[in-house]
Amino acid sequence: MASATSSSPARRRPSLRLRIAVTVAAFALVVILAQAGALLLVLDEQEEEFIDEILNRQAAHSLESYRRDPAAALPNSPRMRLYRLPGDGRSAEPPALFARLAIGNHEVHEGRTEYHVAVRSQDGARFFLAYDVSEHEERLDAIIFLTLAGALAIGAATLASVYALAGRLTRRLDRLALRVIDEDFRGPYAQPDMEREVLAVAQALDGYCTRQAQLLARERDFSADLSHELRTPLTSIRTDAELLAALPGLPDAAHVRARRIVDTVDRITDLAQSLLALAREAEPKLVEEVNLLQALHEAWEPLAGRARDKGLVLVPEIAASATVRADASLLALTLRNLLDNAVRHSAQGRILCRVEGTQMIVQDCGPGIAAGQTERVFERFYRGEAGRHGLGLALVKHVCDACGWGVSAGNAPEGGARLAIDFGAALGPHRHHNLLTLS
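User: That's the sequence. What structure does it adopt?
Assistant: Structure tokens below.
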């Protein structure tokens, strides 16, 4: 059967280890970028001041040189040009973009090119010294790129380092989780060398397991006591009903009622035994070779009267020499509940028991299992469309899980429920095909 799952859609969340690593790396990246941004702002301001200083010095030098010798005052380098308004034949007039500028220093963009322009006045003329700062901008862009690349590299290194370190810190949690899901682990989860946070989780698990064990023990004791206390009065009632049914000259109606009391007491006794079996650990104690056909016949015998009244017969298709290695009492309990379930849900007809491969199949002649209920018929007191299932199949599942057998439910193609016990390698090689009819 499938294990129980949450009602909400399953969604894997990132591991704690990864979340720690990503959080620390993101924090480190933010800090690095913030610091780099502050440094770049300072660098940009210093670069602007440096450009203005170059521009002011060159403008002062060019005006002084122009006063002495206009021909020597023209810096016409690829990066810097001097313009005069009005032009004098030696100095070109400035472009219209510069001509509108007032006296002072300005930043002007022409397309993707940035100019720093110094506008000065001398001898009734205006001089425009234009400085193409593309070289400075390229240098600043290179610094920004290197800073970002370095920040990303440091962030990646931080992520990898913290992920590796977090793996060491969360390894105990992983080991603790493995212990929790290990059914063979019996020791305490808390260990003296655990970190404080992991130790707190382990101690909480130990406390929870202790409380669960105490609660389970109380429930088992209660079920055992209840079953024991019910046995004596039920035996007395059954004995009185049998004696009443045996009285000579008893009216037929009273005889029927007496037999009904006996059957009801037997059902209550079976229910009490089922409760006791569910409360106890159904671990196999004495595993031996058990004749499967004989065990099936013995399990059918107490049900034969009720089955006969309903017009039911048992048809086993099992070889007389077929054996299974099992605890005989647990096998008998399983077979009895399977057959009782088949009798309860069948009308007149056959209950077929056969072996297919390593499986023993019990097929009834009832209405079958409703769609979507094949997994739930093994739940305690599950009420489906065909009525209440009680404890019988829950007990079958309980015993099969303890013995390592598989159990499944479905419907036969020709109709009726089909319950299968997979014994695995425990089922002997002699399986088929003696056809008998037990009524």
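The chain is about 50% helix and 15% strand.
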